[in-house]
Amino acid sequence: MEENMDESQSQKGCKECCERCVGSLPWASLIATILLYLGVALFCGCGHEALSGTVTILQNYFEVIRAPGDVLDVFTIIDILKYIIYGLAAGFFVFGVLLLVEGFFTTGAIRDLYGEFKITACGRCLTAFLMVLAYLFFLVWLGVTAFTSLPVFMYYNVWSMCKNATSVEGANLCLDLRQFGAVTISEERKVCMGSEKFLNMCDSNELDLTFHLFVCALAGAGAAVIAMVHFLMALAANWGYLKDASRMQKYEDIKSKEEQELHDIHSTRSKERLNAYT
């Protein structure tokens, strides 16, 4: 009988511990962090490979050559975009960790461990700082999403021309890189429908793969935007909680101070009465 009671108490204690741990997790920040990491990973990975595929298409089918020296050509711009992708991947990994730590520091378990006052004092400053950063990065990802939609639109046009090449026989349609700003006006780098280069480009895997990689990169940027909105909502909720906790802390301090003063007054009067009686 005693063994059964001990087992039931241990199971109950384990259940309460698990419920407390699960309840103490910052689920909003955790879900937003996972979404942010997935979006950034999808954008950076697919964007990097899509840029590499663009370089292959320019070199093999449009015969664009990298300019010697430090001339700012399309290949240099692509290299700069790759470095930006590296920076985004590293920067938002750290930013996601900071937001997740902030979420943990506003949960009940951490407050019980370090005390309400320390979490309120430090958490408000951290939450306000992260709210400003999250809003700025939200605007950044909106711009990144809009910028990523441009190559998706251009590759969709090229992909549509390849798919409809058989139905528009006799049409003299050409892809001129000067229209996209990839080369200077003096250079003529174009591929026309019906030419061998155009057919080879349409039959190759580079065009289809690069187009779908840019679509995945656009989806990753959109996921990052949603994650930043989710973070803003979580940070705003944490800010409201910490603000109320700060007011409650001040109220508790004033209340305890008044109770201590009343206790001191009562003690003083009791001593005076005792001295008068003696």
Automatic annotation (TrEMBL):
GO biological process, one term: neuron projection development
Membrane-spanning segments: 21-43, 83-105, 126-150, 211-241
GO cellular component, one term: dendritic spine
Keyword Transmembrane helix: yes
Pfam families the record matches: Myelin_PLP (PF01275)
Superkingdom assignment: Eukaryota
Location(s), subcellular: Cell projection, Dendritic spine; Membrane
Signal peptide: none
Keywords attached to this entry: Membrane, Transmembrane, Transmembrane helix
Keyword flag Transmembrane helix: yes
Main localization category: other
Bilayer topology: Multi-pass membrane protein
Assembly behavior: Interacts with OPRM1. Interacts with palmitoyltransferase ZDHHC17/HIP14; the interaction leads to palmitoylation of GPM6A.
PANTHER family per UniProt: MYELIN PROTEOLIPID, NEURONAL MEMBRANE GLYCOPROTEIN M6-A
Family of the protein in this entry: Belongs to the myelin proteolipid protein family.
Descriptive protein name: Neuronal membrane glycoprotein M6-a
Organism: Poecilia formosa (Amazon molly)
Taxon lineage: Eukaryota, Metazoa, Chordata, Craniata, Vertebrata
